[in-house]
Specification:
This protein is α+β, with helices and mostly antiparallel strands. It folds into three domains: 95 residues, Orthogonal Bundle (Helix Hairpins); 100 residues, Urease metallochaperone UreE, N-terminal domain (HSP40/DNAj peptide-binding domain), CATH 2.60.260; 111 residues, Urease metallochaperone UreE, N-terminal domain (HSP40/DNAj peptide-binding domain, Sandwich), CATH 2.60.260.20. The strands form six sheets. Strands 10-11-15-14 form a four-stranded mixed sheet. Strands 1-9-8 form a three-stranded mixed sheet. The protein has a two-stranded antiparallel ribbon with strand order 2-7. Strand 10 and strand 11 form a beta hairpin. Helix 2 packs antiparallel against helix 3. The protein is elongated and about 115 Å long.
Length: 366
């Protein structure tokens, strides 16, 4: 048979890149594979042509020789028995590995799955740390059969169908195809007498109580990992991990800002004007705070070291006390009289914010 042009067979340009050659080969090989075209001799011959063309064009030296002389010393041809120069590892691993199950082996020692637990803590627990007890529903290794799945005193036997390989092979055209053994499901062993406790699975459902140490300074969405406390592994595999996701309850008085605490404290107009001492709540109890006379609403006082310990450095932040001067909603007749007298004798002119504002307005029209 006259040799066809390799580039024409793959449907690519002579300047095609390696990736373009590989992509074209994958598509055509999948399309004309004998398993997809059973009994179609023309598809089988086309498949051989595609393999032979790819065998040459994927190799830079063979391709250069082919481009120069029109042939390459590859042993590839299109007659009977041709097409076996193809790289089967590339063919099966790259193109048909997932589709046909080629190259698979039974899985041993599978790691257990990771688990997640959402843990709610109070504002104080997040600030100072805490010890919490949680219950985790999970699968654990069956203690009766030690995870083997077989009845105590017995052992799994080698699967007679696959001889322990976990795979069976059969001939399809000129290919040898491997698939997971249906009898042992790819395990390579068969349990003739299952463990009564776990029904041959090797794992049982369990609820485990764990102690969780919440470090100081955590905040919402902080993630803690407990190694090996996830689902148990399969066939001797290591267990997964448990991830604790922290959720901090909101506090009625305090707000967290990084490692600092924000606290708003209301005081009366006379307290702000005359000055006073007030009790301010902190995470460790009340402290006395001196408010100087003439304090304005929004004034911030800092209580050093009364914040939250940093999760990373351990250094405690501060507490910021924001003063809110409260205007009385209801006044007695006597209170009204006194305030009116205060206004008449020029009391309003002594307010610094209003005085500053009036001066700015005055300057606008000068």
């Amino acid at each position: 048979m006259a040799q066809k042009d390799f580039y024409e067979i793959l449907g690519i340009d002579r300047n095609a890149t390696d990736d373009e050659i590989k992509k074209a080969y994958r598509q055509l090989a999948h399309k004309y594979h004998p398993d997809k075209n059973p009994g179609d001799k023309s598809a089988e011959e086309r498949f051989k042509e595609i393999n032979a063309a790819y065998e040459v064009l994927k190799d830079s030296e063979k391709r250069a020789q082919y481009d120069r002389f029109g042939y390459a010393e590859t042993g590839a041809g299109f007659g009977p028995g041709a097409g076996f120069g193809v790289d089967f590892q590339d063919l099966f691993g790259d193109v048909f590995g997932d589709f046909f199950g080629a190259g698979r082996r039974r899985t041993r020692g599978q790691r257990g799955s990771d688990l997640r637990y959402d843990l709610e803590v109070t504002f104080e627990e997040a600030a100072f740390g805490a010890e919490k007890k949680i219950k985790i529903p999970k699968t654990a290794k069956c203690q009766k059969c030690e995870g083997r799945g077989a009845k105590p005193g017995t052992s799994p036997t080698t699967c007679p169908t696959c001889n322990g390989r976990g795979q069976v092979s059969y001939q399809q055209g000129f290919f040898s195809i491997s698939r997971p053994c249906s009898r042992c499901r790819g395990e390579g062993t068969i349990i003739k007498e299952p463990c009564a406790e776990c029904s041959g699975i090797g794992r049982v459902k369990d609820i485990k109580t764990l102690g969780v140490k919440v470090p100081p300074g955590v905040e919402t969405d902080t993630r803690l990992r407990l190694s090996g406390e996830g689902e148990s592994g399969v066939h001797g595999g290591s267990p997964g991990d448990l991830y604790i996701i922290i959720h901090v309850k909101p506090h009625p008085v305090f707000q967290k800002q990084n490692d600092d605490i924000i606290c708003e404290v209301p005081i009366s107009f006379p307290q702000a004007a005359l000055g006073c001492e007030i009790d301010v709540p902190t995470l460790e109890g009340n402290v006395r705070l001196k408010i100087p006379g003439g304090t304005q609403s929004g004034k911030i006082f800092r209580l050093k070291g009364k914040g939250i310990a940093s999760l990373h450095t351990g250094r405690r932040g501060d507490q910021h006390v924001i003063i809110k001067v409260e205007t009385p909603a209801k006044l007695t007749l006597r209170q009204k009289e006194l305030l009116e007298e205060f206004a008449r004798i020029g009391g309003e002119e002594t307010t610094p914010l209003k005085k500053n504002f009036l001066e700015k307005v005055k300057n606008l029209f000068e």
